[in-house]
Amino acid sequence: MAEYIPPAIDWVREQVELYEGSGGTEGTTLRDTGLPCIIVTNTGNKTGGIRKIPLMRVKVDGGYVLVGSYGGREKNPVWVYNIRQDPEVQIRDATEVFAMRAREVTDEAERARLWEASVAAFPPYAEYQERAPRVIPVFLAEPV
Q: What is the structure's pLDDT at 33?
């Protein structure tokens, strides 16, 4: 079994530990925003280790939209590369855990619809895209 590699950023690691450690009864909102988040478990594309990352909860049609915003930074977050290599993910939404397969959304109409839902769930995504010198990747995680 692969080894769990905790997030390097302190607040991210603490969020994951609180969320997972409580069985999804605590830490289910992103810090001081009060907005719901999920925990995405994936496999590291270089390490093969188990990685966990909190992302905003954007639920659409029984799936979850995963937005690789990284706060509008120049580069994609590492999890984007992890999922591109191995799309099998686990999503923890509060106390429920689902095995899912994520796919990068490239169809313009589908991406526009999912982006709109993402911005509605977490308005800063619009500002992040304006700031980012890249097109922010959008994935849809769907039940296996």
A: 87
